Amino acid sequence: MKTTYKLLLLIILNLIFSNSYSQSENLILGTWIKTDLKSNSKDVNEFTNFLKYTFKPSGKFYLSTSPKDLGIESDYNIEDKTLQLKFNTQQILKLDKDSLIIQDSNKKGALTTLYFIKEDAYIKNTLTPNDFFLKDKDTIYFENALLSPTFKNKHYKNDHDFIKHHVKHNTKDQEAYSYATFIIDTTNQVSDINILHHISKKYDQDVVEAIKKTNGMWSLPTINGKKVPVLKTWSMLYYKMPNVNGMGSKSNNVTVVTSKAEKFNKRYTLFFIEAVKQYLKTNYKSALNLFQRSENLTSDKLNAKIQIANCYKSLHDNEAYNNIKTIIEKSQLDYVMDK
């Protein structure tokens, strides 16, 4: 009788520990973002910035210091409250569906405690009103490091290369800049394609068709476990090739010539892109100011003028809108304005 009782007790204890182990394995799955760090060591600079842990059902673990990258791969295993990694062993102080607390120690005995929350919760906690806009009754999120759709195509490493491959452009030795936005909805389809910085009618059409080809090639980020629509952008800057005669620096008897943007430099594009965001958020006066600042930074003012005209139209300043419309209709970008 005693033997049977002991055997039954062992079976029950084994089930309890097995169930606890299984729960830990399941709870830890997914991506965790560091929110805090406490240490009695000064040698933890590598952990002070962004840190991401990802646990896969396959037993693979990934450590990354970049929001966009999956990171360095390792195997992992959980035994009791110990997280065993290829490079070290860490103690799990707390693990539930919302939080993960891990303690790490080095050879000198210094202790570092890392506090994590699930990626979804982290994104939700860090979002600000500047990270999204309303379209009809839908909330559309601007793409950023944490809310970034994943492009899936076995022949191209990213969407930029895919779209670029399907767009043909003869620069005619002139600097040119293209900027487009489009929405990826929760069915991974693209919509609302807008060319906001134009090169030519044919080029714009090619960009639109190339973006349409990405339908179904996206995997959206989630908030609270639900997919969210994201506004994606695409841009391409073509440089004017310099005359290499008598130019450049010598390196191993090779002339090195560096091209740089003159009409559409970094300040111009930064103002332009932020202006687009403000316009989408219906902050038309702010957008107008930023587009005007872009216009003042370039000798090629047509694209900025088009967006300035759109701001005036949204602000119901018909006189200012029509004045700019007349200028655009006499230019090579006349196809852009409403007829």
UniProtKB/TrEMBL annotation:
Keywords: Signal. The keyword Signal applies. Residues 1-22 form the signal peptide. This is TonB C-terminal domain-containing protein.
